[in-house]
Amino acid sequence: MSHDQYYSIGQTARICHISVQTLRYYDKIGLVLPSHTDKHSGYRYYSNRDLLYIKIVQDMKMLQFSLDDIGEMLKNDSLDNLFIKLESKQKEMVEEIKKLEQTVKSIEQRTAQIVMLQELGNGLKDLDALVELKRIPARLVVSDRGRYACGMEPSIVRFTELFGKVDASGLAPSQNRIMTVYHENIMTFDREESDLEYCIILDNGAQENVQTRIIPEGDYITALYCGIPNDKSCKRIYSKLLQWTRNNGYVENGASIEQYIVDMAQMMKPEEFIVELQVPVRKALTL
């Protein structure tokens, strides 16, 4: 045996910049077998052709091929087969790049939202509530309406179920996307069982397998405040809005909405919630 044609496993590892353990693994799974094994010592020796195969394996791994795919290509090493495999891998990687770009975009949006929430929260610390009259555009929502208990835990259950439907259907939720519609009077409703509608606002169109509806565009008197929405805070803020409505010649014009301007990670820290209570209004008729 001539050592200018054959190399020990240690020499091969150094030449190919690969570990001895990896070479032994390739031998075990039949990916790259040493051309010669000494009958007496059991030592493995690799030929120049074996080194070429190792380099091919390393090259294919850099292109994100699995060891199974590489083994198949080594057994059928025609250029036609290699072209087909490379073309398929290229399409796969293009799709992966699209997914990664979308993930990067989502991270950027979430980061910007968190910065906005921090700035908004700091600005509200010295205010009881920020009251504004707004024109809110139409909102496409997937929703769940029923007679439910009103509170943090039942709300999380409802929203979790809704997000499951949204994800399964390929719909895109909007930022600041969760809200509760009160189909009863906020001042008198029973928190143990009320007509509530839990909604997720969507960015894209409806799907046949998910029921959606549109909350129409309209004028809303709104109050932005910090903290956990509860019976006391909700009624207190709602009373302020009713007072503004009466003082400015408006009347209520539909069901009130509680929109939670939060990142989903904040669901574990509701004391950091920023809530916007939205009461639809119209100008009162004058005689």
Structural class: alpha+beta
Mean pLDDT rating: 83
Order of helices and strands: EHHEEHHHEEHEEEEHEEE
Total strands: the figure is 12
Give the quaternary arrangement of the chains. single chain
Number of helices: 7
Distance between the termini: 112 Å
Describe the structure.
This protein has 287 residues and is an alpha+beta fold. 43% of the residues lie in helices and 26% in strands. Strand 2 and strand 3 form a beta hairpin. Helix 3 (48-62) packs across helix 4. The longest helix is centred in the middle third of the chain and has 46 residues, at 79-124. The relative contact order is 0.10. The model has no long low-confidence stretch (mean pLDDT 83).
List the topology elements.
Layout: E1 6-8, H1 9-16, H2 20-28, E2 36-37, E3 44-47, H3 48-62, H4 67-75, H5 79-124, E4 130-136, E5 139-148, H6 152-169, E6 173-182, E7 194-202, E8 212-215, E9 218-226, H7 231-247, E10 250-252, E11 256-260, E12 274-283
Antiparallel strand pairs: 1-3, 2-3, 4-9, 5-7, 5-8, 6-7, 6-11, 9-12, 10-12, 11-12
Helix pairs in contact: 3-4
